[in-house]
Every structure is written in C-alpha cells, then in structure tokens.
Amino acid sequence: MTDHTRTDSPDEIGVTQISRRFAWVEIPTPLRWLVPAVGVGIALLIALPIAMMIGRDGFLADSIRANDPSLDPRHMEFAINASIIYAVVLHAIDVALSIWLVVKLLQGRQWARIALSAYLVIATLCSLYSAAAGSAYLWAVIPGDSIHVIMLILLWAPASVRRFFAEHRRGRASSRANA
User: Fold this and answer.
1) Could you give the count of Cα atoms lying within 13 Å of 151 in the half-sphere of its Cβ?
2) Model pTM?
C-alpha cells in the first residue's frame, strides 16, 4: 500500500516497524543506520575515560601539564582525578541521552530529531575544543565527529526520513482530532 498502513503483524512481514494505534509505519533505512552509528559513538564515549585512566600518568598528565606547567604534584593529582571524574560523568550522560533520543526518534518524535541534532552539533563543537587542547585524544575525536556529521546527514537529508516524520506528525494530528 502506498500509505504504509498495514494490518499484518510485524512478525508476518518481517521488517522494522513501529505501531501507532494499529497503523504500522516502516522505519526508513537511513534512520535504522543511526543505531549502529550510536553504537560506535557509545563505544568511543566509553573508551575515552578508560584510556584516560590507563594513561593518567602519561598523556593525561602531559595534557594537563601543557595547559598549566606550574602545577605542583598535589594539584596535578587533583587535576588528573577531576579530569577523569568529569569525563566519566559527562560521557555517562552522553550515552544515556544518545540511547534515549534515538529510541524516541525511531518512534517518530520530531522533538527527538531536533534534540539529537542539537546534541550532535554541541558534542562536535565540544570535542573540537578538547582536541585543540592536545592531540592525545584525536583517535576518539576524529571518528566521533565523523559519526556526528554522518548522523546529522541521516537525520535530515534523505526524503524517506522527512516522509517518516511527516507521516507521524499527520498521525498524531488525526488522533488528536478524533479524540
């Protein structure tokens, strides 16, 4: 059918779909690609604090020392610990936010599309700022920012994605009108 409304169960037709009041709307392939992209992004978000913990007396200390060479050993230890704690907390929030927004996005929520886009732009700018502080983290910044740009393209460029959100918007508007 051209309106993507189906009465079959999702098990019978075997494609990724979302139910909304017995109407099934197929999730476009570009949006399905967001799931592995977020997976890779999460792996990088987890790997970076682990690398900071492992390299705490190496590249992390060198990076902090480059920004403030006058730190005494006690303050250096505090700066290292604070950097690691900050990275762990911030990246844990990023992981939870990414997962939640992608789930909502796959349910056809336009606000999640906008919020994820804003998050990706802010995360990219912040990672570029971190990379400017030192090249020790470029192994995470370059692939992470590349994934952010790819995700932004997948969220906005394909016509199938725009139709997906338009169909969900129409479906919610008609269900409110019928209520």
Assistant:
1) 29
2) 0.79
